[in-house]
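Supplementary notes (optional reading)

For those who missed the lab, this is the record we used. Protein: DoxX family protein. Length: 170 residues.
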Amino acid sequence: MTDHTLPLSIWGKLKSGLQKAACVQAVNATEKPAIAPRQQRVRAIWTNAMLWTFQGWLAMFYAGASFAKLTAPPKHLAILLGWAEHVPQSFVMAVGAIEAALAIGMLAPIIGWAIGKPVLTYSALGLLAIQSLVTLYHLASFDILAVILNMALMAMTASILMFKTARHVA
């Protein structure tokens, strides 16, 4: 032991202790810092306000779109919507009725969360389906502005679906 070397058993213990310390430091470096309860409440309030704003915007957008599809004469719809002249008027009215129901469903949690959560979930899924089909139509017709609009609508709907239905946010 005079040659300044440690016995293997001590070296092994020291080495394993250093490895454990390095692992603990690596785990602590990747963990997110804990958020104070007050910050969690503030974050939840802002998230909830953002999601309700998105729900209101989507409800207004689809209520207006459905009103146009249900009340406008076919001649005006052909000008307003390019696809309306290629399908029967009853199909356009059915799409308008579905959009109206989904718009109302986006505001269903106002009634109560127990009733509103499943209605909101199905409404968001229905709007995502409609938006996906409409986006494909606009991509095929090279209508880039309509694609951008539908992507924004899809982002709002997806965020509502993710945050409102994943956990209890009133």
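If you only remember one thing from this example: Residues 37-166 form one domain.
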